[in-house]
Prior knowledge:
- The complex is a heterotrimer of chains A (about 800), B (about 280) and C (about 160).
- Helices cover about 30% and strands about 25% of the residues of chain A.
- Chain A is an alpha+beta fold.
- Chain A is globular and about 85 Å long.
- The longest helix of chain A is centred in the C-terminal third of the chain and has 28 residues, at about 570-595.
- Helices cover about 40% and strands about 15% of the residues of chain C.
- Chain C contains six helices and five strands; from the N terminus they run ββαββαβαααα.
- The model of chain C has no long low-confidence stretch (mean pLDDT about 95).
Amino acid sequence: MNDMxxxxxxxxxxxxxxxxxxxxxxxxxxxxxxxxxxxxIKLPGxxxxxxxxxxxxxxxxxxxxxxxxxxxxxxxxxxxxxDLSPLGLHWMPTLAGDKQMVLADGKVLFxxxxxxxxxxxxxxxxxxxxxxxxxxxxxxPVLTDPFEALKxxxxxxxxxxxxxxxxxxxxxxxxxxxxxxxxxxxxxNQVMDNAEVVVTESMYYHRTHPCPLETCGSVASMDAxxxxxxxxxxxxxxxxxxxxxSLISGIEEHNIRVVSPDIGGGFGNxxxxxxxxxxxxxxxxxxxxxxxxxxxxxxxxxxxxxxxDYWMTGKIxxxxxxxxxxxxCQVTADHGxxxxxxxPTKFPAGFMNICTGSYDIPVAYLAVDGxxxxxxxxGVSYRCSFRVTEAVYFIERMIEVLAIELDMDAxxxxxxxxxxxxxxxxxxxxxxxxxxxxxxxxxxxxMEAVDYEGLRKEQAERVEAxxxxxxxxxxGIGLCHFTEIVGAGPVKNCDILGLGMFDSCEIRIHPTGxxxxxxxxxxxxxxxATTFAQILATEIGLPADSITIEEGDxxxxxxxxxxxxxxxxxxxxxxxxxxxxxxxxxxxxxxxYLLEVHDNDVEFDVDRxxxxxxxxxxxxxxxxxxxSYNQAIxxxxxxxxxxxxxxxxxxxYPFGAYVCVMDIxxxxxxxxxxxxxxxxxxxxxxxxxxxEGQIHxxxxxxxxxxxxxxxxxxxxxxxxxxxxxxxxxxxxxxVPNYETDHTVTPSPHHPIGAKGVGxxxxxxxxxxxxxxxxxxxxxxxxxxxxxxxxxxxIWETANKLGLHD
Amino acid sequence: MIPAAFDYHRPTKVEDVIALLEEHGDDARVMAGGHSLIxxxxxxxxxxxxxxxxxxxxxxxxxxxxSGRIKLGAMVTQHEIINHDGLASxxxxxxxxxxxIADPQVxxxxxxxxxxxxxxxxxxxxxxMQCIDAQIELIGPGGTRSVAxxxxxxxxxxxxxxxxxxxxxxxxxxxxxxxxxxxQKRKIGDYATAAAAVQLxxxxxxxxxxxxxxxxxxxxxxxxxxxxxxxxxxxxxxxxIKAAVSAMLADIDPSEDNRGPVAFKRHLAGIILxxxxxxxxxxx
Amino acid sequence: xxxxxxxKLNVNGEDREFLAEPRELLIYALREHLNIxxxxxxxxxxxxxxxxxxxxxxxxxxxTMFVAQANGAEVTTxxxxxxxxxxxxxxxxxxxxxxxxxxxxxxxxxxxASKLLEENPDPTEEEVRxxxxxxxxxxxxxxxxxxxxxxxxxxxxxAKEAAE
Lengths: 805, 284, 164
């Protein structure tokens, strides 16, 4: 068999399957400017829609006068809530079980809220018409603080007046949405009461925004003759959008075709359903012509899909030696004017209950209160699984705070408390079953790679030099060990609007041995067309280069719940492997028939079936493909096709260990990243090149969020960071180089052992950068200071610690 | 973001620009690179029925250096400033500052005239022009006149320039001694959180003369005569720098914005100035 | 609406004429009158560079230029840099080094990089980072973009040396 090996390796390499840094097939069109994004779509007779938006955060809409706008040549329609209400479309359901105004129905609840929708011959006329619409408002008191909102007499959601029961249980106050509790409060309190050490800390994870480079948009085209609606748009979940559009419009689902073309980044921004989508559909029905709506950057930042905005108070207990005994977490979640959070239905605070992190914590309790305020709705998972960034930030800060209390090294404290390799599958105190992990191995590998002890020594010397007045720069060593929970998810506990969160793949093998596979997901830059073909190549023995991957057209792709929460590889990737195995099973029967042996006498070998013990007798998959179309095989249907709808038995739990070395200029508040080391374990690695790219990108988004990116409001509810001048997106100049590393701990329940990786670096990166800032000031008594750590906030931290003379 | 409609004019002679300004009064604005004006128009924060594009107007370009006097035409771009070797050696502070303005694409379009003319407190060149005591040349219906940069700025977006006048050039004596343009910003493309322009002449181990101007720390650029005075005659030791910082702090009046609260900006202004003075001294 | 004007542009080597309002932005004129959809609108305020084209030898942000201003100019977009048969060295290297993900910033990024390498054929990493700072990418973290540009510079310089 040995002399066969090189030839076999060569055959495997030719497939460009699992583990190969295959170059991306998408890049040919993207590098030549031939991508096809929503704003590139141009249909005959297409009109343009534009919104009149509220300048106020809370106001009654007294009247909307559209006369002057309607008089402008080229304006075809101006829609208001009044026009939509006969169709029942002035409100729409949110993913979180709430409802949201499509156009202002009597009042507005956040700055930038949609009030009227203008439809005109081109974008210039539409913009002019927006200026001509006169809206009379009566300003109302504005609530931007969730704690204040819970005490205030001001009723934000008058439509819910008197409703004491919400989609997720009882409402305690007219501005309260839900309380979500997990774990055992009594047992947790008891542990806290008797603990040797207890430390409490509060932190605010500020509001920010995913801000993909392409904003949201749609093109709706209602074919009045055939009664068929085609809707192109920036949809991370095109199939779910089709179902939602059908439910709210009454158009039968078979008459709706939803297409996600190329998407210019999503990061969670494009999961939800937005007023613009609905209005483009209605406008197309009303005018009988295609209607395009594309938001500008200010509209994007102000109205579609914020992320985070969690006020978290933690209590952690431990023995004097540092063994954690319990964790308590109380969250006040600011959801804005409507609860439009994009979470699985049964999880109104997402998977915040992963907040016990990578640690073996015997007992824990979590309570989350959702609150209405006069801010934009959203609550999406910005480059993370549902609320996992918040959870990991919380636990990784609590660990640091506990280390301070215990006067321990934070790396040692983590090591003492890691879930041990032999404890997997691990049942967490807040209800999850972690699939696999080897945290100690990852941690030790990183500590050695960065010479952690050497760094600590250098840091101590720097502190002494600082105290002697020889330097004004402090050094921070940021640590983070995160555990993600991705791949939503098992239909038994994960659904969105009643749609189970399975995913799908359908494969057709063509006679000449090439193939097309269609999936229920949609790439937004992750490179699905490249990597899913690699999974299949290994499963079915045809070269990845001969496999086309298609997603995003609901008329052709099988139903799936889309791409977000790192679910594509864990769920659709699994479906792909399973569908591939069905192909292989049939191929085995064909091969056996062709080789005139029993089915069990052939075995799969890279790209062929061989007769066991006689490898010179084989049929390649290419030959088998042709045979499936050309031979009448007794007992088998012609053709070679398969479909798989995959309901994962569990989530997957990628993890990683990160270290950030940062120098901070105490006088200017400027941080300088000297080194960032990221070890990720995402289980089986499909395409190392793409994994590395995902890690660079996720870390950079973490860098931005930790060090300056926010959506802030003033007291009147005005957005303070509505353009890219103020909303921090770093350039190549500010961003460091990253060192990447990995271990491989496959998921035991995933068909190929893969766990997903796109969001890990963001989830782990934010606390790592933030911990570096905190760590720099730890020798001077800092316990907690809130993100974003922009220059002035770092300076203020130093100032409060008395470091400026 | 779509601007309101306007009539577009692209004259070739300065006289025609003046005539258009006279004809349309408040309804007309001149535009050089457009990178301040166009975003304002797209946000519909500036309503300009008549836009006068200066790109084809003769005589507004060019960098000349003659017998120690430097003249920059209004349409000279930041990119040209950076890449002009003669200017880089005659007045290196300009290149140092221009490299810290906006980003490469914007610097191809952004002009010295546009940066200086409008009184945007965030712009870097106004403070720098005060530092090197530049003269701003304006042309209007009554002919040309010259105003010192130090007298030009009145308030945010309010300058000595009349509505029917156009900035045509900027001139100054080649600065001598050491220089520094020190700027802290949040990222590329941002305005200064605090910036300082320093031009310093050393003689016999002491500060012979120095000029100091600060950017984005008031509604106008701040030329701090007192800060300079505090340094003259000293060896630029830390006590002298401290005195200069105190004097400068008495002249600025920053306001709170997304870049930070007033206390931070005042503290930072001091740090930035100290660093700029130190660098200029080392180079002098 | 104001009267439309006749606009002449030489785009990617081809003379094009069309009627447009003066206020139309160059980016939309390219995309909507000429169907050149490589350059994109990302931020609307000249911060992101997704709309970058080369205009009369300068890298410019076409979202912050009126079509009237550009009238008479020579414009090169991503579509003019290479073709499917002969890709530009930068296009090849962006693919080779995974310098793109969603692809939305890529046309502006490559167009800008082509000008950068024209002006500075042998840049350091720092010069690439500084020279590309007018282009925002949300996906890659820039590390592989920088790598792609440096590799392209290398390749172009080697080819030049070989030719000499």
